[in-house]
Automatic annotation (TrEMBL):
Residue ranges occupied by any Dynamin N-terminal domain in the UniProt entry: 42-158
Gene3D superfamilies documented for this protein: P-loop containing nucleotide triphosphate hydrolases
Pfam families: Dynamin_N
Name of the protein described by the UniProt record: Dynamin family protein
InterPro entries listed in its UniProt record: Dynamin_N, P-loop_NTPase, TRAFAC_Dynamin-like_GTPase
Originating species: Nocardia tenerifensis
Amino acid sequence: MPGIVAEAHRLVDAARAALANEARPRALLADCAGRLDQPLRIALAGSLKAGKSTLLNSLVGQDIAPTDATECTRVVTWYRYGSTPSVTAHAGDGARANVVVRRGGGTHGLTFDLDRLNWNAPAPREVDHLEVEWPAAALAHTTIIDTPGTSSLSREVSRRTARLLTPDEEQAVAVPGADAVVYLLRRLDAADVRFLERVGAGTGAAQGVSGPLGVVGVVSRADEIGAGRIDALHSARDVATRFAGELERTGLCQAVIPVAGLLAFAAATLRQQEYAAFEALAGVPVDELSAALLSADRFARPDVALPVAPELRAQLAERFGLFGIRMAVTLVRLGVRDSATLAAELTARSGVDELRSVLDVQFGQRADQLKAHSALTALARVLTAYPGSPADALLPRVRTLLADVHGFAELRLLGRLRTDELGLPPADLAELHRLIGGSGIAPHLRLGLPVDAAPSVQRDQAVAAVRKWRSRARHPLADQFTATACLTAARSAEGTLGLLPE
Ligand SMILES: Nc1nc2c(ncn2[C@@H]2O[C@H](COP(=O)(O)OP(=O)(O)OP(=O)(O)O)[C@@H](O)[C@H]2O)c(=O)[nH]1
Ligand SMILES: [Mg+2]
């Protein structure tokens, strides 16, 4: 077991032993210990209808998360790996009920029937959250939590999401349910900023021990920006860049990426029949097709003459969106000749590949640190809330780890780099970002070298980086924040050096 996870485990176990006679802390700490052994938990959050469930389906590659207006989209739902599919409703008091899963008609995915639940308890309960176990490879190392929209019309629904990510408001002691957050926005509004500020309250310099350490932003339903023009992903990228600028000033996200989740999912599940339809549509004169694609209703109308049956057209519109159809037809016109190539091209243009790689760099490669940070944060809360036992003696060590673990420092700095003015030229800023793991934590990535660079070259580069960043940190004109950032970079370089063979 890696160092920081093992140390967090030891501390949690010691606290459990010391607080074994108190029910509430015992339960919280047992949960804490369990989480260290389980996959990383990533929550998808964002405003109502931002496309969270659709994005979850495209990340998993199967339509397991219900979309649109069914009751089950108003409940926090956990998606975990399981060898056989099952859906369970959990009540706040631990009671459970099996949930019947229905497959929707046509292109619709699953629906969870919450009307008839058989509780393993004498009386019906209110559902606190759902747990879906599903045999999907994407869930093997990551548990994904789908949340109801935060600025939803119902305050109660918003609260369910807030409780998961920023529990302090409602409960004296609680543990944030997620280790990292993907926040979806279609535009930036005050409610998003408020929510992100609350999530991020614990990640800043104050280490106010609150939310998870990793937050990545997604400009969602990116194809709808620019009114479905063929260059929508470019205009979406411009919007995302603007968002990124605004978000960076607030310091709320580590990265912002535009993603067309609907297109990503349709591409991942592209059917031969759909490919054939795009081929047929590519033969239609450009003006005629553009006129038919003015709206989804118009495109599916039987009296609009097109070489594809109206039902199939309706399916294309629902699965790909108008932008996706235009994009697919354009790609066929440009020479794509088979469905596998089309699927790959559409996937690349949806932005989901880029999101996957950012999630891997920011969350996947740092899963141990993120999990250990959640556990230590929770442990600090429990120890503070239940003083007066021998476990008190553990608190200083927990606080020291939260403040000093170098991986935590890197993550905090990654989150703040763009927010705060560092007194460094752009090239140095880029190098610092790379050194602290902004492009990935493998030594060659940190050092900016090719993957096959000789160990001696890597060592020389690492030694030079240690020298350079130590001396930057000591520069008499460096302000406090810049000096600390340079020292963090020097430590990252030292850590990298330690990983390289002699
Ligand atoms: N054009 C387009 N539509 C999308 C995209 N993602 C989602 N949608 C549509 O937006 C609607 C809402 O999508 P959901 O995935 O249910 O959104 P959500 O954020 O989970 O919604 P709630 O859970 O109800 O807050 C559905 O009709 C989707 O088909 C996208 O990338 N492009
Ligand atoms: Mg949803």
